[in-house]
Write a structure and sequence with these properties.
Layout: H1 3-16, H2 22-36, H3 48-63, H4 69-79, H5 83-96, H6 108-121, H7 126-133, E1 136-143, E2 146-153, H8 159-169, H9 172-195, H10 199-225, H11 232-239, H12 244-275, H13 281-285, H14 301-308, E3 315-320, H15 321-327, E4 335-340, H16 341-351, H17 355-362, E5 374-379, E6 413-417, E7 427-430
Antiparallel strand pairs: 1-2, 3-4, 3-5, 4-6, 5-7
């Protein structure tokens, strides 16, 4: 058939089907241009032959997704290298396998596929449809517990095809995936908020929570519409130049990194709490005084917060009355090591009047209490004086100091700024043993 005759046939078809809307008529015109070897509506560039070949490929791969590889091969065999004949047979095949049935009604893909299907269903393609409907081929089938070859009709529309199209048309797979994505995003957001306490952990937790909400929102849209929706994070990355093919993956990896940091941070806190020691203790102790790292660099915010919470009922320190009268409660740098009042009360009770036992519990030199010149200083509100974990850089850090805010006996210790403390901020009492 010549291009002129084919174009006349398409014009007649469009004239006789006035119910087609503008999108459907445009799609048919575009397919007709591909079939006749002319340019495809200015969308596909190149020579006329290349345009026709590209259109045929688009036809086969996008709108004839139900065609078995044997059926595609049969069309090529029947067309004998004639691209126009091959395109006609593929349009007829689209009609036979109902290629528009998998798409959501009204979608752009549905409009294009339906236009091709209607064209393939027209009277002008009756011979092409009949030729394909008469084809059969050998297929491997399972029956009576074994596989065997059987000669079966080709270009059909089976129950399994109908089921698959229904699932695709209503976006069942996409909706299920969207529901799963929504759930995952919600859990991620909750996990991120749980991570957020202070410092770097809060930054990572905030990002994880925000990206989790973004993921859940995109999943909810996919679930409701049946159409896959990208996350805002992916669109942001694309705006920065990331390829759309990789934007979601990169966004996902960034979330995995934040989650991994949260897991590591949590495990580190559990290790410190379980062992009472800080990883890298020897390295910290071997670092010269004044150059030791901030505790936040090797302890989790959760651990620091829990340890300092032991001082909510007050802080206590022991010192000789002579030093108290001469220097006050602070060291030369204005800091002061303090113990948790509740723990001191318990230790004194357990010592049962034995000064040696109390010295051992507090890690104090032997005979410290035997001078009879020791006072106890209680600070009711240590949080008012910059209560914090000791770094080991303080003037009062001696050879018994260890990282982690703990004494050798695992009782808590902390640091306050004593330079600004007033006598009204603490009480002092002599330590006496029976």
């Amino acid at each position: 058939m010549s291009s002129e005759a084919f174009s006349q046939m398409v014009d007649t078809y469009l004239s006789n089907n006035t119910q087609l809307d503008r999108n459907e008529r445009g799609a048919i015109t575009q397919w007709a241009a591909a079939l006749s070897g002319s340019a495809v509506g200015g969308v596909i560039g190149g020579t006329t032959g290349a345009q026709s070949g590209a259109a045929v490929s688009l036809d086969a791969e996008r709108y004839n997704r139900q065609l078995h590889p044997d059926e595609v091969a049969r069309i090529k065999q029947l067309s004998g290298g004639d691209k126009e004949k091959e395109a006609r047979l593929k349009a007829a095949a689209c009609a036979l396998v109902k290629c528009s049935a998998e798409f959501t009604v009204g979608s752009a893909d549905y409009v294009k596929a339906q236009a091709l299907e209607q064209l393939g269903n027209s009277d002008a393609y009756a011979t092409d449809r009949a030729q394909l409907a008469s084809q059969s081929g050998s297929q491997l089938v399972y029956a009576m517990g074994s596989y065997a070859n059987a000669n079966l009709p080709m270009f059909g529309y089976s129950i399994s095809d109908q089921t698959g199209d229904a699932l695709s048309r209503y976006g069942v797979g996409t909706r299920i995936g969207g529901l799963v994505q929504t759930t995952e995003g919600e859990f991620q957001a909750l996990g991120g908020m749980a991570m957020c306490t202070t410092g770097v952990a809060c930054l990572a937790g905030s990002y994880l929570a925000a990206s989790g909400i973004d993921t859940a929102y995109a999943g909810a849209n996919s679930f409701l519409s049946g159409i896959s929706h990208k996350t805002s994070g992916a669109y942001l990355l694309e705006g920065l130049g990331v390829s759309p093919a990789y934007s979601e993956a990169i966004y996902g990896f960034s979330q995995m990194g934040a989650a991994g940091f949260g897991v590591w941070n949590g495990l580190r806190g559990e290790a410190i709490a379980a062992t009472g020691s800080v990883p890298g203790t020897n390295d910290i102790l071997s670092t010269p005084l004044g150059q030791r790292p901030d505790p936040a660099a090797y302890m989790t915010p959760e651990y620091i917060s829990q340890d300092l919470a032991l001082f909510d009922e007050g802080a206590t320190k022991f010192m000789t009355e002579t030093n108290f009268n001469k220097y006050g409660i602070g060291q030369i740098d204005g800091t002061s090591f303090v113990l948790a009042k509740t723990e001191v009360d318990m230790l004194m009770k357990n010592a049962n009047g034995d000064p040696a036992r109390l010295e051992q519990s507090l890690g104090l030199p032997s005979g410290f209490f035997s001078t009879g010149n020791v006072v106890r200083v209680d600070i009711p509100s240590p949080g008012d004086f910059n209560l914090r974990m000791p770094s080991g850089n303080e003037a009062g850090a001696n050879g018994f100091w260890i990282p982690g805010g703990k004494l050798p006996n695992n009782n808590a210790e902390a640091i306050i700024d004593a330079g600004s403390i007033l006598p009204s901020n603490y009480t002092i009492s002599p330590v006496k043993f029976k």
